[in-house]
């Protein structure tokens, strides 16, 4: 199920800066925002409660990875916060992912990180001692994620098609690394435009700096949303 709103990465070091950014949007504009470790650890659960009180949807990106019992109880707590989507590391294993699902119940979309996009094939082989290609590892983890009953994965848009073929058509592919036509890639290596992400099969796009650092963030958000949804039938 595709989400028409780009998910805005709320990567700010303080609550005040995040609030200032959100205040740029009219109150009736309900956003989908990604709360990452930075702001969550700086502010705490209050940041999620605040966003929900404004009527926004929240993807809490904490990438949990611990023993199944701990992940399950943590997910139970997150389910009470009212997050719309959250995630774990697939490397925690099928049992851990099933425990996460049990903890969260049906109170939100649950996805997994396969291999971080900052991990190169050489690093993976050397450090994790996984002797396959990076792509094979990503597909393998996506299949384990589906087997555990989770809803999808965080992945590069370029991998979305293969992942859906290896799992099922409804398996969610949430993709960062999005850059609108004619903007800076920054530190992202493999970027796609919102339109390309749609063509390739992303279900959710995560966009940070092209919106948060834009001269006019509201206009940038709408332009990206338009580019993402213009060919939808
Ligand atoms: O500013 P930018 O659009 O690059 O932000 C992308 C967001 O998605 C950041 O919060 C980043 O941490 C996150 N992310 C990513 N690549 C991944 C997973 C998460 O860029 N593989």
Automatic annotation (TrEMBL):
Gene3D superfamilies: Aldolase class I. It catalyses: orotidine 5'-phosphate + H(+) = UMP + CO2. The keyword Transport does not apply. Residues 5-224 form the Orotidine 5'-phosphate decarboxylase domain. The active site is at 63 (proton donor). Catalyzes the decarboxylation of orotidine 5'-monophosphate (OMP) to uridine 5'-monophosphate (UMP). Belongs to the OMP decarboxylase family. Type 1 subfamily. This is Orotidine 5'-phosphate decarboxylase. It comes from Streptococcus taonis.
